[in-house]
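DEPOSITED CHAIN:
***
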Amino acid sequence: MTDNPKLLSLLGMCRRAGRLSCGHDAAIGSVRSKSAKLCLLSSDASQRLRNEIEREADFEGRAIPVRHLLSTMDEIGKATGLKSAVVTVNDEGFAKSMLGLLNENTPGEVNL
């Protein structure tokens, strides 16, 4: 099962715009520098990675949203050109659009 194709397309656009950090070290660096606006984890990310990213995203009041995708590392890799279990979106506009797509089934306002 995969996520909304629009979401994967946005991930690719975000990567081409240079506003995506792919991989563990890049994502952690982006979160720690507070440039990350959204963290996305693949469906096949390890529990250890999930715990670490969630802990970092919430550390010291950062409150960076973390979402678990239905897409696998391979599917994210096809969309972005880089196979990775974790990516961070470092642009507020892209992050709001992606959160909107992820929350389509859940009514409510998207806040960053």
In short: The longest strand covers residues 38-41.
